[in-house]
Design a protein that fits this description.
By secondary structure, the chain is mostly helical. It has two domains: 13-134, no CATH class; 136-193, no CATH class. The chain is 38% helix and 6% strand. The protein has seven helices and two strands; from the N terminus they run ααααααββα. It has a two-stranded antiparallel ribbon. Strand 1 and strand 2 (173-178) form a beta hairpin. Helix 3 (47-60) crosses helix 4 (101-117).
C-alpha cells in the first residue's frame, strides 16, 4: 500500500497563525489557566468594548480625557476578517507595520461608544512604534543591550552553544534558552507567550490602569 501524495502547492501552504493561537488558548484553558483569547472568532472582538468601559468609568469620575496603550502585538490576535490581504513573513506572522492597530481600535471603540450612549466620541489612534524606536536609548536600554550582546559572545566563544536564544532574568542574569524550548515542533513557529493572570507583571499593569468597578450594560 503506497502512502498518499500531497501536491507541492498544498505542502507549501503555511499553517494559520490564528488557528495556532486558538489552539494554544484551548491548551492553556485545559490546564486550568485563565486566558482571554483573541484568535478565531467573530470580527467584533472584545478590546473595543473594554475601552468603552474605561471611557465610561472615567466619565463617571469627571475625567473626559485619557490615553489607552495597546501593544502592537495585538494585531497578531485580530480575527481573520481584519487580516485579509495583510502581508505575512515566511513564518506566517503578520507584518505589524501594515496594520495601524491604534486607528482600527479607535474607530471600532468610537462606534461602540455611540451605540451605547447615543453620543459621538472622538478617539484618535496614534502609532508610536517607529517614533519610539528612533528615540535616544536610556540607561536601561544601554545596559540590557550590552548584556545581551556580551551574552551572545560568551555563548559562542566560551560555551560553544548553537541554536540558542540569549535572554536575561532577575538582575539581568544571562539565560541561554534552546530553540527547541521555544519553537513548536508542529508549526515550526515560536510559541505564543501570554501574560499570566495574577503574576507580578499582571498585577502591576492592573494597578496602573483605570478600575472599572461598575460596568454599564449594553
Amino acid at each position: 500500500m503506497t502512502g498518499q501524495r500531497i501536491s507541492t502547492r498544498i505542502a507549501a501552504v503555511s499553517p494559520s497563525a490564528t488557528l495556532a493561537v486558538d489552539a494554544k488558548v484551548r491548551q492553556l484553558r485545559a490546564q486550568g489557566e485563565s486566558v482571554i483569547g483573541f484568535g478565531a472568532g467573530e470580527p467584533d472582538f472584545a478590546t473595543p468594548e473594554h475601552i468603552v468601559e474605561l471611557i465610561l468609568a472615567r466619565e463617571r469620575r469627571g475625567k473626559l480625557y485619557g490615553t489607552v496603550v495597546l501593544a502592537e502585538g495585538l494585531a497578531e490576535m485580530l480575527p481573520e476578517a481584519y487580516l485579509k490581504g495583510v502581508a505575512r513573513d515566511e513564518h506566517g506572522h503578520v507584518s505589524l507595520g501594515r496594520i495601524d492597530i491604534g486607528r482600527l481600535v479607535a474607530k471600532l471603540a468610537s462606534e461602540r461608544y455611540e451605540q451605547r450612549t447615543g453620543k459621538a466620541k472622538k478617539l484618535v489612534g496614534v502609532q508610536h512604534g517607529y517614533e519610539s524606536r528612533c528615540a535616544a536609548p536610556h540607561a536601561f536600554d544601554v545596559v540590557l543591550g550590552s548584556q545581551l550582546g556580551l551574552g551572545a559572545f560568551h555563548a559562542l566563544t566560551d560555551k560553544g552553544l548553537d541554536g540558542h536564544m540569549v535572554s536575561v532574568a532577575g538582575q539581568l542574569d544571562l539565560r541561554y534558552v534552546p530553540f527547541s524550548d521555544i519553537i513548536d515542533p508542529v508549526t515550526l513557529r515560536a510559541e505564543v507567550r501570554f501574560v499570566k493572570r495574577g503574576s507580578d507583571f499582571h498585577r502591576l499593569a492592573a494597578s496602573l490602569g483605570t478600575k472599572v468597578t461598575s460596568p454599564t450594560s449594553s
